Amino acid sequence: MTALSTTVLSNPNNSNAARLQALVTRKSDTDSLFEITDPEWIKWYTNHFERTWEHQNKQAEITTIYGVHRDKRAALVEQMGKRNQAGVTAYTIKDHASVKNKIYYHGTQRACKIGEKTKTLCTKDECHLCHILRESFRLEHANPRGMFGPGIYSTPNSSKADSYAKNHRIHSHQHAIIVCTVVKGERERLFQADSTRTAPTPGFDSVEGVVRNLGGALNYSETVVYREDAIIPRAVIIYTRKGWAPGC
């Protein structure tokens, strides 16, 4: 499949904003997801997922796409902004809606069947997926041994995120990855690992790990932010892995 790094997708928001906005905001239950049934949005998410699936040794097929309610996303951004260091201007939901901020993916551990048998988020400590959907990304849970330090990692490649999507103590043929919006701002491109850093170099807002064919150390790109209001969950894609053993 073709990478999306230089591809611009047509966002349904641009053509029929009022109708699609109503679709996103019609519910207020912030502890549940809503199934995306609008054909334009399904096509948009599917195209993005497939075009950014770069691993040739594995395949996936989407079964269902769920959205995170807009009022929930707005509340998460506001909540995370209050956790910033003193003097740091908080991002808003409008910042996350900017055309400059692309869609990214995050794979994590799922310990329930959210997206299959239920749309309601669970409260299990070991279900990192539902924890992120409920409370967003927290630096306190960041991996201290991450390649670029303890930040919040995401990737423009759906297939790379799939490598981190794990079903924990549940038997299922389906898997889940989170679709995120990331306020990247000025990106600092890193060509080598630096697990000691806790922030971008002054003057930059995020870190981008450069891929090998451009002189970097990664096979597939990833972006790291070090502030919690710079990344929020937008949707969840449920999919099957073709040719893979169930529950792996």
Descriptive overview:
With 248 residues, the protein is of the alpha+beta class. It has one domain (12-242): Phosphoenolpyruvate Carboxykinase, domain 3. It has helices at residues 17-25, 39-51, 70-81, 93-96, 128-135, 158-162, and strands at 34-35, 59-67, 103-107, 109-110, 152-154, 166-167, 174-182, 187-190, 206-209, 222-225, 231-242. A five-stranded antiparallel β-sheet has the order 1-2-11-7-3, with helices on both faces. It is globular and about 45 Å long. The two termini are 23 Å apart. The relative contact order is 0.19. Mean pLDDT is 88; it is low at 1-10 and 17-28.
Protein topology:
Blueprint: H1 17-25, E1 34-35, H2 39-51, E2 59-67, H3 70-81, H4 93-96, E3 103-107, E4 109-110, H5 128-135, E5 152-154, H6 158-162, E6 166-167, E7 174-182, E8 187-190, E9 206-209, E10 222-225, E11 231-242
Parallel strand pairs: 4-6, 8-9
Antiparallel strand pairs: 1-2, 2-11, 3-7, 5-10, 7-11, 9-10
